[in-house]
Amino acid sequence: MKLDQFPEAIRPRLIPKPDGEMIYRCLGCRKEHGIETLLYTCPDCGSVLLLHDRRFERLKAIDGGTWRKILDYRRMLKDPAVKGIYRYHEFIGPVIPLSSVVYLGEGHTPVVEANAHLQAKAGIRFFYKNDGQNPSASFKDRGMASALSYINFLIQEGHVDEVLSICASTGDTSAAAALYAAYLKPKIKSAVLLPHKKVTPQQLSQPLGSGADVFEIPGVFDDCMKVVEALSERYNVALLNSKNAWRILGQESYSYEIAQDFDYAMADKVVVVPIGNAGNITAVMSGFLKFFEAGIIDALPKIVGVQSVHANPVYRYYRQPEDGQRKFVPMTVKPSVAQAAMIGNPVSMPRVIHLVERYNRVAGDLRVFFAEVTEQDIMDWQLTANRNGHIACTHGGESLAGLMKAMQNGDVDSKETAIVDSTAHALKFAGFQDMYFQDSFPDGYAVRPNPDLVNRPRYVRPESIEKFPEAGRPLEGEAFDRFVDAVSGQIAESLDLKKKV
Ligand SMILES: Cc1ncc(COP(=O)(O)O)c(C=O)c1O
Fold it and tell me: Which residues does the UniProt record annotate as the domain Tryptophan synthase beta chain-like PALP (predicted)?
């Protein structure tokens, strides 16, 4: 069946109709605001916003089986009519015409089943979903594709001429923002604010390489966030942090992909995500809720949100008894190897509170759980995962450690199947692996190497070094033959190789 043979209502929209179908809805005063202007907070009460699609009832009118066929059909298209996250166009931003969509290859990241050894160690069947295999090597590209497609749409529609995008970042938001803005230059320029020395060298190199204006300030992410909030209130800039509700919409694609990858059977699934600014868990809950309400998935999967003991304000909130009046208290963070999630005052906390309540209510059961893990557990599980064929970053290690904790807490059963979010590529956080291997973590991290996981290069050179002043430099003739003999002999001895007969 061809795409244009589906009824008009379920084909991706080619013509925009921003006639009030999509609106911002305030989570505080519940007021609604039009999307012609980019808003971050409610102009009336200052609370955070979520985007709401007034046509959603119409999407619900199409039965789940038809939706599944449409989505599976789109997956088979060689030249997809709807690319990347916009395979789920109707759920992500149906007012954005496909002609405004910015696509840099994001989404549809691999889902890799853990090998038998790792599953036996973990005591549960689980898969990593590798969001580090997005273009800027983290899940942030999903939300940036959506936010930048929307801005592109505003430009194409003549609502704005030029945009300076701005964000605070623990490293990955800035990498993604700068990359997508660079693609849309000269109409969009990018400026990013980073906490000095609290992003990795790889992360810092990304916005620099994309040509963004990069500002470093003393302090932590929460301080940078205050500055960009002030800038976006006082000046004409487009804020690209997840306070921007378009980011959340794009990140919902993570849930849609999991649903599709597991044939829409979610009843026995557990999705584990790390939490920093809480945009990701907001999007994951919101995405599953939409698919469930549209009848596309059979149940709402369990969700486990994980935080390090060094940055755990969300966990602390939910640790308070449910019957009492829970109070959210921002905290001062301590150094964490899950550095990109080192956030003490998550911007999306009101969204989390709203959605956790709704998620559990719609499920009719407790389906959202929180776990806290030590820095040691994060590193140990990250390295264990990677020794078994994964490319998990420290936050992926945090997720896996959180899954273990949730099992210990009795929130997850060993008969369930988990999908563990590795939110970025391991290489972005290689410095923490180095510190672990060299036992050189500065005070404050509370991580010591487990000798079984430590790995170091061995420098092999001939004994009689004076004859080979620069081992590694190609030598010639007999000298080179002796070099090869000596070095290969040492490697064979070290690996305990048996000689061929
Ligand atoms: C790699 C990585 N993992 C996890 C997080 C936490 O996600 P969120 O801030 O949406 O909670 C971030 C960013 O903050 C991140 O960059």
Answer: 104-417
Q: Tell me how far the alpha carbon of residue 322 is from its chain's centroid.
A: 29
**Can you tell me the distance from the alpha carbon of 372 to that of 370, in angstroms, rounded to the nearest whole number?**
7
Q: Which residue has the higher pLDDT, 51 or 13?
A: 51
CA dihedral 144, 150, 155, 158 (to 10 degrees): -170
pLDDT higher than threshold 70 for residue 359: yes
Q: pLDDT digit string (tens) for 446-486?
A: 999 999 999 999 988 776 555 555 555 656 778 778 888 88
**What integer pLDDT is reported at residue 201 of this predicted model?**
97
Global ipTM? 0.99
Task: Give bridge partners of residue 116 from the DSSP assignment.
Answer: none
Nearest atom in ligand 1 to the alpha carbon of residue 132 is 1
On whether the CB atoms of residues 52 and 354 are closer than 8 A, the answer is no
Return the best residue to mutate from 240, 343, 423, 429 for the ligand 1 pocket (most ligand atoms within 8 A of CB): 423
Pocket, ligand 1, Cβ cutoff 6 A: 138, 170, 172, 242, 274-280, 340-341, 393, 395, 423-424
Residue 20: what pLDDT? 67
Identify the CATH assignment for 111-136+248-438 out of 3.90.580.10, 3.40.50.2000, 3.40.50.1100, 3.30.70.20.
Answer: 3.40.50.1100
Which residue among 129, 133, 139, 206 is best mutated to probe the pocket of ligand 1, counting the most ligand atoms within 8 A of its Cβ? 139
Percentage of the chain exceeding pLDDT 90? 81
Q: Where are the domains of the chain?
A: 111-136+248-438, 458-501
Protein residue whose Cα sits closest to atom 5 of ligand 1: 341
C-alpha 352 to ligand 1 mean position (Å): 14
